[in-house]
Amino acid sequence: KEFLELCIRKVGKVTGMLHRLEAGAIVGIRGPFGTHFPMQEMVGSNVLLIAGGLGIVPLRSTIYWANDHRTDYKDITIFYGARDPGQILFDYQFEEWRKIYDLKMLTIVEHPDESWGEHVGLITDLFNEVPIDPDNTFAVVCGPPVMFKFVCTHLSEMGVPRQRMFVSLERRMHCGMGKCCRCNVGSTFTCLDGSVFDYWTVMNLKEAI
Predict the structure, then answer these.
(1) Domain count across the chain
(2) Cα 103 to chain centroid, rounded
(3) How confident is the model at residue 178 (pLDDT cuts 50, 70, 90)?
(4) 117 and 96 both lie in a single domain
């Protein structure tokens, strides 16, 4: 495709300004910066994609990658959780994603409304719905940092090695170029060394999450 598609939530001055722009406006973009989810490393294995809230945004491109290279992977499973149905993003594409060969997608919310007809509870509850092979599964987790601890602890208890769990710490990033020193954890810079890390590395970075 000859265009970039961005998902930006209006939360402050900069994002508010972007929301006020009209078609034809010129916007400067730097990047991409840092690392990416190591999809080549997962070839031949099952892939579990776990997103919470806005975490579905960076995983969306990963879903497209998996679809374009479907024969490279075994089972692909998506867990997507949000606080309520109004926080669910890209629901208009869920049926398209579910049509991908051997892809399972489960959604869950903590506070359902009358229209909600899927799972209710915490995202870790979805582990009871789909069997996970810990010896041949890679997990990609993206969402609120507090979710990492619960999800990755659950995966670890199931036997998935922490080196095969990948999380994104992009929420810590600021300048993206290693200049402002606001994203560093000790000598590790989220923007230069990450923002994607395996969970074993994250556990050994004090106060990373």
Answers:
(1) 2
(2) 16
(3) confident
(4) yes
The answer to the question of residue 32 being in a domain is no
Instruction: Tell me how far apart the alpha carbons of residues 115 and 143 are, in angstroms, rounded to a whole number.
Output: 24
Which residue, 46, 51, 53, 60, is CA-closest to 6? 60
Give 10-48 pLDDT, tens digit per residue.
989 999 999 999 989 999 888 888 889 999 999 999 999
pLDDT for residue 12? 92
Q: Which class for 151: exposed (0-12), middle (13-18), buried (19 or more C-beta within 10 A)?
A: buried
In a domain? residue 152: yes
User: Do 48 and 208 touch, CB atoms closer than 8 A?
Assistant: no
Tell me the pTM: 0.90
Helix, strand or coil, per DSSP, at residue 86: helix
Q: Residue 202: which domain range?
A: 169-209
